[in-house]
Amino acid sequence: MQLSKRFLETLRLSVIPAYKLAWEAGLHPNTLSKYVTGYLRPKSFDERLLKVGELLGLDRDEVFEVNEDE
């Protein structure tokens, strides 16, 4: 499981800074950064990442992509 390209692009282009979106979703900004850079692998049930997606205007199914090797 990884964050979708659409999620990453929308986060990058957002007028709201990523750290503010992270705090609003109950996620530490450093943790969001680790998910975005791939240092940490997100779980599909992580409500905090789904909340960030919601704040970006994305549906739940637009937040994650399934890797081919999973």
Protein described:
By secondary structure, the protein is mostly helical. It has one domain: lambda repressor-like DNA-binding domains (434 Repressor (Amino-terminal Domain), Orthogonal Bundle). It has four helices and two strands, in the order βααααβ. It has a two-stranded antiparallel sheet. Helix 2 packs across helix 4. The chain starts with a strand and ends in a 5-residue tail after the last strand.
Order of strands in the sheet with the most strands?
1-2
Let me know the average pLDDT.
Answer: 91
Strand content: 5-15%
Uncertain residue segments: none
Which architecture name does CATH use? Orthogonal Bundle
CATH topology, which one?
A: 434 Repressor (Amino-terminal Domain)
N→C terminal distance:
7 Å
Give the SSE string: EHHHHE
Rg from alpha-carbon coordinates: 11 Å
Helix count from the secondary structure assignment: 4
CATH class: Mainly Alpha
The biggest sheet amounts to: 2 strands, antiparallel
> Helical percent range?
40-55%
CATH superfamily name? Answer: lambda repressor-like DNA-binding domains
How many DSSP E strands?
2
Shape: globular
Q: Which structural category do the helix and sheet elements fall into? A: mainly alpha
- What's the domain count? 1
In short:
The chain contains four helices and two strands. The protein has helices spanning 5-13, 18-25, 29-37, 47-55, and strands spanning 2-3, 64-65.
What key phrases describe this protein's structure?
70 residues; mainly alpha; 434 Repressor (Amino-terminal Domain); two-stranded antiparallel ribbon; 4 helices; globular
